[in-house]
Amino acid sequence: MKTFQTRQSSSNLNPLFSILILLALLIGFFFVAQYIYKFLLVISPVVILVTLILDYKVFASFGKLLMAFVKQNIIVGVSFIVLSAFLFPVISLFLLGKALLKRKINKFEEKIRQEENTFTTYEEVEEPIINVAKKDQDKKYNYDKLFEDA
Predict the structure, then answer these.
(1) Are 44 and 96 in contact (CB under 8 A)?
(2) Is the separation of the CB atoms in 86 and 39 below 8 Å?
(3) I need a surface site. Which of 55, 68, 107, 150 has the fewest CB within 10 A?
(4) d(CA 48, CA 55)
(5) How far apart are CA 5 and CA 123, in angstroms?
(6) Cβ–Cβ under 8 Å, residues 59 and 66
(7) What is the pLDDT of residues 123-140, one digit of tens each?
């Protein structure tokens, strides 16, 4: 009869020490997020102006989206409006990205439309005559012969 030995993995870290490390990491992430939020808060007026210059319809569509949430469910709509008021630096950066993406898509579509309306110059090439000898066809391996002997 065989016997198996199982080892329990013993960790040198105390569970309390692990919790303290996790807490320190969470506090560090909080401070990093706080500094990023403050930076975005400072640059958000510039981001909003650039977004309005690029495409003002992005803000209009965001407002329509919020109003649609209010019409569908007033509690959810009002909570989204309050949340967007607190997170407006992040939302303004998102709307700038959306405006830049729409602009890039519109330029790409315009380029495609221009390419569709132009003619391409081409040259007619005569097809070469290929002579396949009967001997070359006989040299090919016949796949069906694999299953004849089986």
Answers:
(1) no
(2) no
(3) 150
(4) 10
(5) 79
(6) no
(7) 787 877 776 666 555 556
CA distances in angstroms from 134 to 128, 137, 139, 142, listed in the order given: 19, 5, 9, 15
Tokens 């391996």 identify what position? 141
Across 28-43, average pLDDT: 94
Residue 38 DSSP symbol? H
**H/E segment holding residue 67:** helix 57-72
Domain extents for the chain?
43-115
- 51 within 8 A of 99, measured Cβ to Cβ: yes
pLDDT at 82 over 80: yes
Tokens 């898509």 found at: 105
CA distance 78 to 74: 6
- Give the count of alpha carbons within 13 A of 111, CB side only: 6
Amino acid of residue 146: L
| Cα distance between residue 53 and residue 8, in whole Å | 64
For 145, the 3-state DSSP assignment is helix
| Predicted local distance difference test score (pLDDT) of residue 1 | 62
Give the phi and the psi of residue 29 in degrees, each rounded to 5: -60, -35
What whole-number distance in Å separates Cα of residue 20 and Cα of residue 98? 40
